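COURSE: Structural Biology Practicum
ASSIGNMENT: Worksheet 4, Part C
STUDENT ID: 0417
INSTRUCTIONS: Below are two proteins. For each, the amino acid sequence is given first, followed by its structure token string. Answer the questions at the end about the second protein only.

PROTEIN I
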Amino acid sequence: MTISLAYASLLTLVYLLLSFNVSRQRRRCLVSLGDGDQPPLRAAMRAHGNFAEYVPLALLLLALDEAAGVSAPWLHAVGAMLLAGRILHPFGIAMPAPNPPRVLGILLTWLALLLAALLGLMRVFA
């Protein structure tokens, strides 16, 4: 399962960067718990939280697809969309509306989830 491992590892690095950003914003805003009604901290927290909400299911589907024998190009398509989406999304959260990176990030994430689910269903019902 080297393909899903590669994307899980890359996404972990993104997660660590998002975690570091939350800590950095907490120090800047002098807030220990919650968001202290500080927009930069709130944005960092939501970027981190949104990542934590979407990525585990996507990685699980990617790993299960790989274990079920889905071909490497399809796995890379899912992984690349997920990685690109999760990198774009926090940049969009940090900017005022309209924020195209946020929209493109979530659309890529949703597309990766949809594709991973459909590939899995195709393996199950093939």
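PROTEIN II
(use this one for the questions)
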Amino acid sequence: MGGIGKTVLGIKLGKQIQYYFDYLIWRSLNNAPPYNFLLEDLETFFSDNQSKEFKERGILHYLRKYRCLIILDNLDSILQYKKQGQFKQGTA
């Protein structure tokens, strides 16, 4: 349901609790990017141009090692309408 203030609420909450996390990552899914695009984006963020080390350890290493808050704004844009937990075709 759009226009009820979820993004504003997310911004305010993120600002209030950001100090409890090592990383705060905000990504908008407004244009319904495919899942692999989002994953590659997060990998780029964590790898910080250290591709060899990152490939050896992977994204899960960083998610386990650091306290990370990942906010996915507009998650509803990649979900199927009236089918809970299912992604739109071409986004997963």
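ANSWER KEY EXCERPT:
Q1: Residues 80 and 86 are 6 Å apart (CA to CA).
Q2: The radius of gyration is 15 Å.
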